Amino acid sequence: MKVIVLGCGFGGVEVANELSKRSELRKRLKDADITMIDRKTRLEYQAAHPEILSGKVIPEEISGDLNKFAAKIGAEFINDTVVNIDFKAKKVKTKNGGKEIAYDFLVISIGAEQTFFGIPSAEELSYSVNTLKGAVETKNALDKIDFSAKEIHIAVIGAGLTGVEVVGELIDYLRDKKASAKISIVEMMPQVLPTFSTENVSNYVSKFLLDRGTEILTETAVQEVREREITFKNGKKLPYDIIIWTAGIKPNSLLEKLEVPKVKGWLKVDPYLRVEGMKDVFAVGDTASFEREGVRSGQNAEEAERQGEVAAENIIRTIKAEKLRRYRPKNTIQNPRAFISLGSNKAVMYFRGMVVNVFAYRLKKFVERRYMKRFE
Ligand SMILES: Cc1cc2nc3c(=O)[nH]c(=O)nc-3n(C[C@H](O)[C@H](O)[C@H](O)COP(=O)(O)OP(=O)(O)OC[C@H]3O[C@@H](n4cnc5c(N)ncnc54)[C@H](O)[C@@H]3O)c2cc1C
């Protein structure tokens, strides 16, 4: 019995971990084996990527060796990119050497990709922190700037969670370097942190950033990016020296090839996290679209992990011919919650519409360290 976990981020790692913990599976099916496949060799703790900019963390601290992790839990790890899936033949096809790997159960947990919304030159001219490599490149680009020569202008596009965290870390970066620069954060929606349902968190974070000299441009949509100048849809222009893109995600491009039910390109899952209409294929994390009775799961690390646990349990229940467990999201689109770090070792916790700032940064770092321990 072979379970393939395709994509080893928060969701995939949780699936593999849970499957390996449940010794009943191994006892019952002596040859049960778990194969983890990822195009990267390390799990990336994306929530900490903005802190790469200020040097508060280094890549090794916030990424985990997947080979070592797989060996620890008794799974196999294959470092390769999956280029297609044949659901009828129950095989995944990989890029290197074009291998076809058979499965009995498949979990698709390939996350999301950054989108530049087709805005001309945005991708080519922007830096990003979405991947660890991108975060390191952004930090290297900052390090090369001569802040004493003229006033440097940093533009951060997107005032969601990542955007405001990036601004916080930029402020710390400049403080430590004893340098100054103008920072503008650009958001097409009317408020900072537009996906959070109440205004209190947006107002709190906006004030925090304004007090530290950041320019906030809301209701401002990017139309075009050129060398050193951004043009907005309202006709205004913004000169820049470095642009950091933090706006928007889209479905993983592999999903375009898969002929299965989707919602706006994301994999549509049933209440048990199986891809709709399939009994042996599950989807978890950002790649899955789950909605029941008007409640939509959020695309965040917390739900990716929760879904990973439920999918693992449902694989075991399917094998044992037991009733499957329903997935119930907690961190939802309708009721989101998050730690938002703001630089200066400060953070806010947004939970049930409330903003809590006491010990929030320490708690956030505690959660991060506890998670990364599994890779030691
Ligand atoms: C900068 C940033 C900050 C964030 N901050 C927070 C935060 O503070 N709190 C929070 O809850 N969430 C945060 N998120 C979101 C959170 O990281 C994601 O929701 C979470 O990682 C989703 O887990 P996942 O397993 O679905 O995908 P991922 O963790 O992205 O893992 C997907 C894996 O699939 C692999 N993969 C993709 N395609 C292929 C392929 N074709 N073949 C092989 N492997 C493949 C990738 O290499 C990757 O390892 C942040 C995201 C970013 C980018």
General description of the model:
This protein has 376 residues and is of the alpha/beta class. It folds into two domains: 2-39 and 80-113 and 250-319, FAD/NAD(P)-binding domain; 116-242, FAD/NAD(P)-binding domain (3-Layer(bba) Sandwich). 29% of the residues lie in helices and 27% in strands. It has helices spanning 10-21, 23-28, 50-54, 66-73, 122-125, 132-144, 161-177, 199-211, 301-319, 360-372; strands at residues 2-6, 33-38, 42-44, 63-65, 76-79, 82-86, 91-94, 100-102, 105-108, 112-114, 152-157, 181-186, 215-217, 222-226, 229-232, 237-239, 242-245, 249-251, 262-263, 266-268, 281-283, 288-289, 291-292, 295-296, 338-343, 346-351, 354-356. A five-stranded parallel sheet has the order 5-2-1-9-21, with helices on one face. Strands 13-12-11-17 form a four-stranded parallel sheet. A three-stranded antiparallel sheet has the order 6-7-8, with no helix packed on it. β12 (181-186), α8 (199-211) and β13 (215-217) form a beta-alpha-beta unit. α1 (10-21) runs parallel beside α9. The longest helix is centred in the last third of the chain and has 19 residues, at 301-319. 43% of the residues are buried. The site of flavin-adenine dinucleotide (FAD) has 33 residues, from α1, β2, α7 and α9. Flavin-adenine dinucleotide binds next to α1, β2, α7 and α9.
